[in-house]
Amino acid sequence: MKLHDLQPNAGSRKDRKRVGRGISAGQGKTAGRGTKGQMARQGGGPSQYFQGGNLPFFRKLPFKRGFTNLRRIEYVEINLDKLESHFVKNAVVTPETLVSAGVMKDLSEPVVVLGGGAVTKPLTVKAHRVSASAKAAIEKAGGTVEILPLRESQEAGE
Question: Which domains, ranges and CATH numbers included, belong to the chain?
Answer without folding.
Answer: 76-151 (3.100.10.10)
